[in-house]
Design brief:
Blueprint lengths: L8 H24 L13 E2 L3 E3 L12 E6 L4 E6 L4 E5 L5 H14 L32 H22 L10 E3 L4 E11 L8 H6 L2 E9 L9 E7 L15 E5 L2 E7 H6 L3 H20 L3 H4 L21
Antiparallel strand pairs: 1-2, 2-3, 3-4, 4-5, 6-7, 7-8, 8-9, 9-11, 10-11
Pfam family, one: DUF5996
Protein name: Ava_C0101 and related proteins
Organism: Nocardiopsis composta
């Protein structure tokens, strides 16, 4: 498959809406069953060879070590414990309500008991409706779910390549179930205290200066998939910085996003290089205005060893 296959929002928006809520249910299980990490790094999913995973969790909540995985190749939800107990069920054919019941029942069947503190969607139009009562969202088209995974995997690989170029504090490349995007974040080291009224999510996520880079599948504000970047706190003059051809600055809440639309990247002669160039330009724009030591933190090809001038992989000579 070519890099960045088409995934127009209007053709899979119903599957996306259902799958988004499926993932929020499992994401809230992850929150309930794992120790808290700085900047909410314990919350997102990670990518696997067939889908996404919660990663191992449990123990801190009295449960055995367990994982919950979405398999978008076989179209299953798979739960496993470290002791070898396993159970799964098909993703297709469920409303959010029936998926919610089936997840909890499946986990109980392998000896995992989870209590979700607030079993409602987060930051979605129906956030006042319990998962257990949502029979409206019930569309799961396997072909689009698989395409979603393919795009996630390809974008994830590009984000990993981009992440390798910075030796400072960096988040994992991870998939956020609340906003349904995949992202990596660089930290400059300076504190950026948030006011109490900003709320716990924002205060923890942006307690330090950051530049963040990611991709989302489209929403009501940008109804098409796009690569994005933002800097927080946003420095004065950010939108005056030049971005590569085809990219733009767009207003977003109290600040701005650098945007490169997915369709524009797909049309480039080298889509991968176009996305990497976009991320680098957005990073330089924000980091330089914040006064980060961009040259000292640079590590081209992921190498910080000053003696490895050829940037060879160690295993190539051993």
């Amino acid at each position: 498959m070519r890099l960045f296959p088409p995934i127009p929002l209007e053709e899979w928006d119903r599957t996306k809406a259902t799958l988004h809520r499926f993932e929020q249910i499992v994401g809230k299980i992850r929150m309930a069953s794992s120790p808290r990490r700085n900047h909410w790094w314990h919350v997102p999913f990670r990518l696997t060879g067939t889908g996404i995973t919660t990663r191992p969790m449990g123990l801190v909540d009295g449960n055995p070590l367990f994982t919950v995985d979405f398999d978008f190749v076989r179209h299953l939800l798979v739960a496993r414990t470290a002791e070898g107990r396993e159970a799964s069920f098909p993703l297709a054919g469920h409303s959010v309500a029936s998926f919610y019941r089936e997840v909890l029942s499946t986990l109980e069947g392998i000896g995992v008991h989870v209590d979700i503190a607030r079993p409602y969607p987060f930051d979605l139009p129906d956030s006042d409706r319990p998962f257990a009562e949502d029979t409206e969202h019930a569309t799961y088209q396997p072909a689009w779910a698989n395409r979603y995974w393919q795009v996630l995997g390809q974008v994830g690989a590009v984000l990993e390549e981009f992440a390798a170029g910075y030796s400072g504090k960096t988040s994992p490349v991870h998939h956020f179930w609340h906003t349904f995007d995949i992202a990596v974040t660089r930290f400059g080291g300076a504190e950026a205290p948030q006011p109490e009224e900003a709320g716990p999510l924002v205060r923890e996520a942006y307690s330090e200066e950051v530049t963040s880079f990611g991709f989302w599948f489209g929403d009501d504000k940008v109804p098409e998939p796009a690569f994005y970047s933002y800097t927080a706190p946003e420095p004065d003059g950010l939108t005056e910085a030049r971005l590569p051809a085809g990219a733009e600055w767009a207003e977003s809440g109290q600040g701005h996003l650098a945007l490169l639309r997915y369709g524009t990247a797909r049309e480039a002669g080298d889509p991968r290089a176009a996305v990497l160039s976009f991320y680098e330009a957005a990073y330089r724009a924000g980091a330089s205005l914040l006064g980060w030591e961009t040259e000292r933190r640079a590590c081209p090809a992921g190498v910080t060893d000053p003696h490895d001038k050829a940037r060879r992989n160690w295993w190539e000579t051993n």
